[in-house]
């Protein structure tokens, strides 16, 4: 459902993403992890058609991004790390705007929106977005993305700003959608969430995919079967120098 071949993006002399190859299957939750500045958000922007790569190919649901960009955007849903909404609209007005843009069946889509809003305890659809907190915006953005019942979902730090109960509900909903055949691609700094949710994990550092696989496969690759995902991540990205060395702290 998500394929990237040789994906590269430069900003001047900086290579933000370097010859990246990915393949995410239908029904799979794929966690894309990396330190700050590793290339996660740039990768999502390319995979969702927001930013063009300097080189490489992208296919979503069998469609090539260069040839079928608009059709792909109708198939996917994106939840960015910073929700971008129109502050002068009410929540329900913004939802109706999205319904009109994507030419979705109004009654069926609104029914799904209200069902999701009830799950997330969203009781502010009639209020102006300018009055929303970051967490309120995040929950609404997630709800609007999921109301479309997309076949591919991209989420950039989706649990940031969510309370513990909402984050858990989101995890359960994403698993249910994956079980129904949707592909979920998300980034997170909360490694415990990735460890519990993901079918497979990719770790990017300095623009390169340095490891990929299930948690057990990552453990096998590192030769450290007892490590948690957090320990593996720190070890592979060299962010945990001496963190797990010995009890004397040497």
TrEMBL record:
Gene Ontology MF term list: ATP binding; ATP hydrolysis activity
Cited InterPro entries: AAA+_ATPase, ABC_transporter-like_ATP-bd, ABC_transporter-like_CS, ABC_transporter_ATP-binding, P-loop_NTPase
Top-level taxon of origin: Bacteria
Residue stretches spanning the membrane: none
Pfam hit, one: ABC_tran
Keywords, ordered alphabetically: ATP-binding, Nucleotide-binding, Transport
ABC transporter domain: residues covered: 2-231
UniProt-listed PANTHER family: ABC TRANSPORTER ATP-BINDING PROTEIN
Protein name (record): ABC-type multidrug transport system, ATPase component
UniProt source species: Mesotoga infera
